Amino acid sequence: MSKIGMKNPVVEMDGDEMTRVLWQWIKEDLLCPYVDLKTEYYDLGLVNRDQTDDQVTIDAANANKKYKVGVKCATITPNAQRVEEYHLKQMWKSPNGTIRRILDGTVFRAPILAKGITPYVPGWTKPIVLARHAYGDVYSGVETWAQRGQKAYLVVEDEQGNVQEKLLIQDFQKGDGIVQSMHNMDTSIASFARSCFNYALDLKMPLWFATKDTISKKYDHRFKDIFAEIFEKEYKEKFEAAGIEYMYTLIDDAVARVMRSNGGILWACKNYDGDVMSDMVATAYGSLGLMTSVLVSPDGNYEFEAAHGTVTRHYYKHLRGEETSTNSVATIFAWTGALAKRGELDDTPQLVEFAKKLERATIRTIEEGEMTGDLIPLFNAQGITPKKLDSRAFLKAVAKRLENE
Ligand code: NAP
Ligand code: MG
């Protein structure tokens, strides 16, 4: 059988620990036998990031901009303990943060559904894709304590330092308290909006966006207005043609609607709402091993990855020569997402078809009762007793089904 060809490369960003081990096996068992894999390889493993003074992360992000499509393995974000463990020159920044800054993108997280793995919210029969604005608000907020008798103001100056506006926040006459201020940027909100509109069109899913503009009449209202303006000008007709809708509502109403829905929604959230809701949505669908993540920039660059980390505990077992049962599904789907997008951009339908086949084979493996240990307690299908496979055996079980797709 001849292998499927690729016109342009995918930017491949290798990573750390157990996911680095899975990465190699996925390529060996599921990709290289079928696809003449064309990648531009960047080793984002911590050792190489340290050796290159993290230049490799910047190069990889720039390559992702050049080739439009990247796939990334989970990587260690070093803390003090990692600095010691790896004898690092310094505590390098989160690679995901660096890539996000360079691509200026929005992260979308989507669960992978399989029959037998029932979400904790039984009505959610279709995926809920969550988009989190990753700039500003309380994450770059400024805050302090105030003492009784003090007054706190919000002050705005012009470039020369002349006070333009001075608003009393609170007069702390009656006792001590706390104050907080935060900001966002119109450009960042507009990028976020365009990323969401584009991704909704890609997925052909309705887009919901919510803030608390009735209370926050300037701050949250700005988000609402920027989304509305960009939608009217640039996306309304495209949404009509695609048969999907854009809905704006209040955040509390959105939460109530999401709970009642069957899923099948792209839910755009402000930074804090997205932080909270993404963990709720991820948990409700089952396992971290079934959650994918894609970074989409407003100018159409895509970086696919699994939402989980490097699964350190399993890696140390692996190093001791013990068997592991680590879920590779989200990492497989990172690859299929990247290959399908590559195929779509390059007009290579065989590549898109292969990616879909591999996804079906992966889901079918679980649905037919063969899975990694994390899914066993979640699995419930009549007449099927789930069988726990080790990390490599799961990939072989997928490969066997891929042969018959
Ligand atoms: P983690 O690697 O996601 O793992 C946390 C725990 O969740 C694991 O110990 C395991 O539980 C379970 N788990 C996660 N993914 C799994 C999978 N695919 N299959 C089976 N079980 C899975 O998070 P962490 O331990 O907090 O972080 C480890 C390292 O990953 C850190 O160095 C962190 O910086 C990095 N990280 C990277 C990314 C990224 O690159 N996007 C994201 C998050 C964290 P049991 O041990 O109970 O089996
Ligand atoms: Mg969080």
Can you summarize the main beta sheet? 10 strands, mixed
As laid out across the biggest beta sheet, the strand order is: 2-1-3-14-13-4-5-12-10-11
H-E string: EHEHHEHHEEEEEEHEHEHEHEEHHHEEH
Number of helices: 13
| Class computed from helices, strands and strand pairing | alpha/beta
**Overall mean pLDDT:** 95
Shape: globular
Helix content: 40-55%
Q: Over the alpha carbons, how many angstroms does the gyration radius reach?
A: 23 Å
Which ligands accompany this protein?
NADP nicotinamide-adenine-dinucleotide phosphate, magnesium ion
Distance between the termini: 14 Å
Poorly predicted parts: none
Total DSSP E strands: 16
Strand residue content: 15-25%
Essential attributes:
single chain, 405 residues, alpha/beta, globular, binds NADP nicotinamide-adenine-dinucleotide phosphate, binds magnesium ion
